[in-house]
Amino acid sequence: MEEVKKIESVTKDQVSSIVKCLGFGAMIINWNDIDYEFGRGVLEGYDRCLWTKKGHRITIAADPRRQTIIASESKEPDEFYLSKKN
Q1: What Rg, from alpha-carbon coordinates, does the chain have?
Q2: Can you tell me whether residue 17 is helix, strand or coil?
Q3: CA distance 75 to 78
């Protein structure tokens, strides 16, 4: 997985905006289980990530030139999240 450079706060409104941008593709992710207290991770470039309360990483990759945003959720809990959360 891509390295998390830092953690920022995240709001429900910001996540709702991401879901709207993703459109139909957002349906494959459980957005109701986001750990807002933990925040969002800053990755390379414009990429960010969120975590579910079970530790699964949701990576949001953005390509501003093509105005494309994709999201994917890990199948297993993220070691970074587990190490920081405990």
Answers
A1: 12
A2: helix
A3: 9
Phi, psi (5° rounding) for residue 78? -85, 130
Strand boundaries in the chain, DSSP class E: 6-8, 40-42, 48-51, 56-63, 68-77
Q: 16 and 36 in contact (C-beta within 8 Å)?
A: no
Residue position matching structure tokens 């879901």: 19
pTM: 0.89
β-strand pairing of 68-77 with 40-42: unpaired
Total length of the chain: 86
Q: What is the pLDDT of residues 42-86, one digit of tens each?
A: 999 889 999 999 999 999 998 878 778 889 999 999 999 999 987
